[in-house]
Amino acid sequence: MITRQTKWPRLVTASLCAMLFLAVPQGFSGAAQDSEGKRLVDQIQGVFMDLADRVKPAVVNIAPVSTTVRSGENPRERNPNSSGTGSGVIVDKRGLIVTNNHVVGDAKEVEVRLSTRHKFIGQVIGRDPDTDLAIVQVATDHDLPTVPFGDSSKVRVGQWVLAVGNPFALDRTVTLGVVSGLERDAVRLSRYEAFIQTDASINPGNSGGPLFNVNGEVIGINTAIINFAQGIGFAIPSNMVLQVVDQLRSRGKVMRGWLGVGIQEVTAELASKFGIKESDGVLVNDVFDNEPAFRAGLHPGDIIAKVNGHSIETPSGLSRAVAGLLPGAKVELEIIRNGERRLLPVDLGERKEDAVMASIPAPQAPVLPELKLGLNVQDLTPELAEKFKIKDKKGVLVSKVESGSAAQEQGLREGDLIKEFNRQPVNSADEFKSALAQIKKGDSVLLRVMRENRAFYSVLLPKEKEK
Q1: Catalytic residue among 102, 128, 201, 280
Q2: Cα torsion 236, 238, 240, 242: sign
Q3: Could you tell me which of 452, 457, 460 has the C-alpha nearest to residue 435?
Q4: Cα 77 from Cα 67, distance rounded (Å)
Q5: pLDDT for 285-334, tens place per residue?
Q6: Is 207 a residue of the active site?
Q7: What predicted TM-score, i.e. pTM, was given to this entire model?
Q8: Rounded CA gap, 58 and 460, in Å?
Q9: Of 87, 128, 130, 132, which one is the catalytic site residue?
Q10: Is 71 marked active-site?
Q11: What are the structural domains, with CATH classification, of the chain?
């Protein structure tokens, strides 16, 4: 069902008129103000109309093709109702097209339809699921219309943008809006996220289409919307797109740098235990043996504050910064260790497809003072190590977690291996109990925990034992 949307254009027109009439110099008569305001509105309207005319020819419709063996039929048949139908943008006059990986899916060939209605069968020559990007090549004997890329690092919240695509098979639909936010990295759509958020309408079918600035430069590739939300769309920034496309063209795959660490967000509780601010960096909870960070001397409990001079505030920010560099690159990490800042050079390795992900349980709500520690521990034996598939030889095993306790609230569970208690190693239940006995009422406890051979830090606030 198609419904009319009239409020948005009227709102834009009214807002523009209000701003433009306010911009008319004082002293103009009412008639002069009306005339000047209309002239300025016509000029801005003309800018967007000219922009749309200039960029639309480079936007294409992309749909998967299916093979049929029925006699007399075209062996390549377009499926107009496929969920993979989307958009793309021509970035090279010899027929190179950028789109979303989820638009092409597992297809090796797709149908590409130009604004002139000409159709091509395009070959999917590269894809990168980690950023949801793919490139398609069509064979052509003449130059195709293209558009240039802009620098997404210069994009600012509030600037005007134009989205062009094929929502619901409505070819080359143009929508106007502004940049609503930058570096959105908690959308959980792909591994490396730094989305441009926009309120320019993006709908199913817009995926893979370009987001333009007023100069006609591509500053993003539209990739997603939030279901049931209005005016919340996301685009992959152009600098990330260019980086991925260049590697796909030259290597056929994307190579990414690799540190070899487990990391987690610095919560208020963790910041207090490590004597830092929440925004100071990202906490290293594990350093993988014989990986670049291990060889460079990075330790669990270090805080990575900067990479090559650029501040790091979130785990995803660190992942993007490292993955954006090539294997073999030398990076300079600024770390905080025991309250002191120091520089640490690291030679990056190459991230493998089966590399261990540096992930941890989602942050939990702060532990309330009335909750007790609520866990039992025991020595790690070979039998228990085998039962819980623990490769580590040292640590204290969590044998029970009480319901409603601080330990349960923080996500601890039976089979977890506690490696450190307040930054000190613990290798037996007696050592753990002795360390706990030294804790004063009201003090919190910092545990370093291994689960399925991945590490994370957790802060618990014990309760005084009942007598």
Answers
A1: 102
A2: positive
A3: 460
A4: 6
A5: 888 888 899 999 999 989 999 999 888 888 888 888 888 888 888 999 99
A6: yes
A7: 0.64
A8: 56
A9: 132
A10: no
A11: 7-56 (no CATH), 58-254 (2.40.10.120), 257-350 (2.30.42.10), 375-460 (2.30.42.10)
